[in-house]
Specification:
Blueprint (H helix, E strand, L loop, with lengths): L2 E2 L10 H9 L11 H14 L3 E5 L2 H12 L5 E5 L3 H5 L3 H6 L3 E4 L9 H7 L11 E7 L12 H13 L4 E4 L3 H8 L3 H5 L4 E5 L10 E5 L1 H13 L8 H13 L4 H15 L5 E2 L9 E6 L9 H13 L2 E2 L1 E3 L3 E5 L6 H16 L2
Parallel strand pairs: 1-11, 3-4, 3-5, 5-6, 6-7
Antiparallel strand pairs: 2-8, 7-8, 9-10, 10-13, 12-13
Helix pairs in contact: 1-11, 2-11, 3-10, 12-14, 13-14
Amino acid sequence: MHIDLRSDTVTHPTQAMREAMYRAEVGDDVYYEDPTVNRLQDKTAQLTGKEAALFVPTGTMGNAIAVLTHAGRGQAVIVGDQSHIYHYEAGGPSTLGGSPMYAVPTHPNGMLDLDAVASGIADESDEHVAATALVCIENTHNRCGGKVLSVEQIEEITSLAHAHNIPVHMDGARIFNAAIALDVPISTLTRSVDSFMFCISKGLSAPIGSLLVGNKEFIRRATRIRKLLGGGMRQAGIIAAAGLVALDQMIDRLAEDHAHCKRLANGLAELPQLDVKADEVATNILIFTLLDKQQQPASDAEINRFLAKVQAQGVLLSRMGPKGIRAVTHYGIETQHIDSALSSIKRALAEA
């Protein structure tokens, strides 16, 4: 059996989730009649300090719904050039909504370049450019190694956008990791954004689903877009039940994942063949670099051989960006797994 560090999406539901799913009270959610879905949405709104929430099948769909709800065809969406929405969601804003994405630089800490955001904001006074309808941010930031945006950073962005009457959507797939890392309530982290999405199928370990959150009017319009995209589910309480368990039982334990990631980073940092910035680990994502004999970033072929050797030793890692290798800690990974993974990676490097 492999120690799977490719992603926190590989988590399996807990026994409590399986039992809750088996016993879930259900109805037709398209008719708003599934009591378990309704409880999950109400609990999410209460927990996050927003007016309403919408249960959706995936985080990618949640982000797509948000963009299509906020921005009309031909209106621009400002995104970070390292953002998940820009890189890994099949061009949703442009493909589905006809909204061009205006990419601005992402700093290594996950923060958007504010000067670039300010210069990229356009209104309808210039008929040559697409007017800006939305700014998107990401917290925690995947390609930046799980970095966390602070409350102050978020409010810098929202203040700038709101000064131009532009809403802000947060891709908060791992927002609870951010809240745990900063030791603040999620409602504090999200108070200034106009909408956000979080996944229950990553570190929170539910098998399926995400929540899109905002005010009641936003969610009303978002529900129509969900239907348009085929996301209207029927007896969805069977999977929503796992989400209720996730919010009740799985948030605080995210700190264990963060500690395990730090332990892994510290161990890998001792290996001269790897460039690991252990002091920058913020949550449950570690991105490191394989070095060649000249202590330069290894070639694609060398990286792929290394990953194959590590897999042969019983550990699964993934690639991230041009040269990065990603390891993600999650529910089901314990201290002994981290120590075993470190030993396996050392053996793989010794074979080189």
